[in-house]
Amino acid sequence: MNIGEAAKASGISAKMIRHYEGIGLIEESRRSPGGYRIYSNNDLHTLSFIKSSRSLGFSLDQIKQLLSLWQDRGRASSDVKALALQHIKELDDKIAELSAMRNLLQNLATECHGDNRAECPILQGLEQQCGEAKAKKT
Amino acid sequence: MNIGEAAKASGISAKMIRHYEGIGLIEESRRSPGGYRIYSNNDLHTLSFIKSSRSLGFSLDQIKQLLSLWQDRGRASSDVKALALQHIKELDDKIAELSAMRNLLQNLATECHGDNRAECPILQGLEQQCGEAKAKKT
DNA sequence: CCTTGACCTTGCCATTGTGGTAAGGTCGAT
DNA sequence: ATCGACCTTACCACAATGGCAAGGTCAAGG
């Protein structure tokens, strides 16, 4: 099947399929005489695996590892689990970070009348030491 | 004060201060005869405001709006609150998305023995319809 | 046989926010 | 005069995705 069909079937855009090939996440596909990429059901299976992994928030780099474990019959499930647990931790950290932001902001917003007067606890909060909320990049 | 001191005092890197100037988030600063940027306490105040806003997860675009409201004596606090509520919604959406991922992944991980055998429910989950987890970009 | 339209190809640019590096200028102190 | 610490601009990079443009392929229908 062509890339368009593979895209539709896998839920990954044609653009991204080409990109994944370019960065070596998937192998270069076979080509038709005219140069069109051709995908087998097996390829589609791989694309779907990638799609699922992306849906769970794994990075392309992590997916590269997942893929090689997936294709390694001699893998230890502990290796997979380690990757998963690490990602769960990343998710938890991010969730905690966002929740902290949310709560701080919610507090400020609650105090704000939200009328046509200029006085505004939200702006006052931002003006002050509000930066205490440590928001680290991950 | 020079950009280095302003950076240290505001918690925003010199690199970013220049960048913010470049994209018009802050005005071009005064310059010393030698071409060095010079910052006043007032400028520092603005930088701190930006820092706080970033800590709460506002985008630079949103911060541009916040800044103009902040500097507008005739603002209505409702406008600020609207911005804040919108951002809270964004945060909530993101948190919900990440939590959904986390929970799905946690379920898979719980079922995985994590030993040296190859059988692995996590990989099996990714292989199957796991893509059900709709993870939309925001 | 030739045209048309749908699909494919590559390649480059944009996004968001931040970091890095390089080549050079400034400044204060010795 | 010189040295080190700081500054300047101007590029490149990341991650993951989208968009556009100029051109090639292919199948169907006239």
From TrEMBL, chains A, B:
Residues 1-69 form the HTH merR-type domain. Its main location: cytoplasm. Gene3D superfamilies: 1.10.1660.10. Keywords: Cytoplasm, DNA-binding, Transcription, Transcription regulation. It holds the Pfam family MerR. The keyword Lipid biosynthesis does not apply. It is found in: Cytoplasm. InterPro entries: CueR, DNA-bd_dom_put_sf, MerR-type_HTH_dom, MerR_fam, Tscrpt_reg_MerR_DNA-bd. NCBIfam families: CueR. This is Cu(I)-responsive transcriptional regulator. The lineage of its organism: Bacteria, Pseudomonadati, Pseudomonadota, Gammaproteobacteria, Cellvibrionales. The gene is cueR.
